[in-house]
Specification:
329 residues; alpha/beta; 7-stranded mixed sheet; 6-stranded parallel sheet; globular
Length: 329
């Protein structure tokens, strides 16, 4: 018998998450049956989506949702040999017994000198989100100007780099001077700290006086309404996240963007990367190709210890991470 540590959501979040909303439990796992495998978590992802999705996809008492890179330690399934690694939606668990459904083997082309944790970041869900937002939703073209907020995060940092690969001007907004410096290292044309600029409107105008063709939206809230006013006519907006609203007990109201969208004839579309799941193998190969060529960089914010899952999760909601937040077991 193997003991598995699990983090349980014992109370739905009311406002910002608290330590008391979580409970660490230990459970005995049965030996894997025919067709089943026993997984041991190596890296776990903490992501902003967990905050709103916990309300709609979880009940109190459930194991927290999430994705991990895990090692196969026992196997009765020939598709997943012992010692191989997979990406799985196992939640906040140290060990899992499952039948292999929805497990994704780490691709054979994975470079030996690249950490498997990137399968949760630039070569995983965040990287795919960036790629599909740019290509499938925005249809970003060479020579266009792109604005991305939360630009130093797991998704935003990849968005900017892919846009540069495509020959675009990229402007990024982030929440600290260190994050702005990081964006400059990645090759962003312009970057600013939205917390210290006197005027969001003036900062956007200074960064791109002619306006913006495309806006990759990760934040929501009042600052996004300001950004919409700087869009060019027929501009496109890909709505990926709204992290500024996730912890609100009372929904934010206004300003409302409808008139701006009408006058500028803007197109806004929300999306999730699993819409293009059929493209995933090819897309992951493209991302890892850019990584090998040095065109795509990845920075990780690593927290060590399964016991620190809640702290790491709350940290990303405070904006403490630069790049992808990962918990290493």
């Amino acid at each position: 018998m193997v003991q598995a540590k699990t983090w349980i959501l014992i109370k739905h979040f009311d406002g910002f998450p608290k330590d008391s909303d979580f409970e660490l439990k230990v459970e005995e796992l049965p030996a894997p049956k025919d067709g089943e495998v026993l997984l041991e978590a190596v890296f776990l992802s903490v992501d902003p989506y967990m905050r709103p999705f916990s309300r709609v996809r979880m009940n109190e008492g459930d194991v927290m949702i999430g994705t991990q890179v895990a090692k196969v330690v026992q196997s009765n399934n020939s598709a997943f040999p012992v010692g191989s690694h997979v990406v799985g939606r196992c939640g906040w668990r140290s060990h899992t017994v499952c039948d292999g459904t929805n497990l994704i083997p780490i691709m054979p082309e994975w470079p030996q000198d690249v950490s498997l944790s990137l399968a949760l970041g630039a070569i995983g869900m965040p990287g795919l989100t960036a790629l599909y937002g740019i290509e499938e939703v925005l249809g970003l073209q060479k020579g266009e100007t792109l604005l991305v907020n939360a630009a130093a995060g797991a998704v935003g940092s990849v968005v900017g780099q892919i846009a540069k690969i495509k020959g675009c001007k990229v402007v990024g907004s982030a929440g600290s001077d260190a994050k702005v410096a990081f964006l400059k290292e990645l090759g962003f044309d312009e970057a600013f700290n939205y917390k210290t600029v006197g005027s969001m409107e003036e900062a956007l105008k200074k960064a791109s006086p002619d306006g913006y063709d495309c806006f990759f939206e990760n934040v929501g809230g009042p600052s996004s309404s300001v950004a919409l006013q700087q869009m060019k006519n027929f501009g496109r907006i890909a709505v990926c996240g709204a992290i500024s609203t996730y912890n609100d007990s009372t929904p934010q109201t206004g300003p409302f963007p409808h008139l701006t969208m009408i006058v500028k004839q803007l197109k806004m579309e929300g999306f999730m990367q699993n819409r293009w799941e059929h493209k995933q193998p090819e897309s992951l190969k493209r991302l890892i190709g850019w990584l090998k060529e040095g065109k795509l960089q990845s920075r990780e914010h690593i927290t060590k210890g399964f016991e620190k899952m809640p702290a790491a999760f709350m940290g990303i909601l405070r904006g403490e991470n630069v790049g992808k937040a990962i918990v290493a077991v």
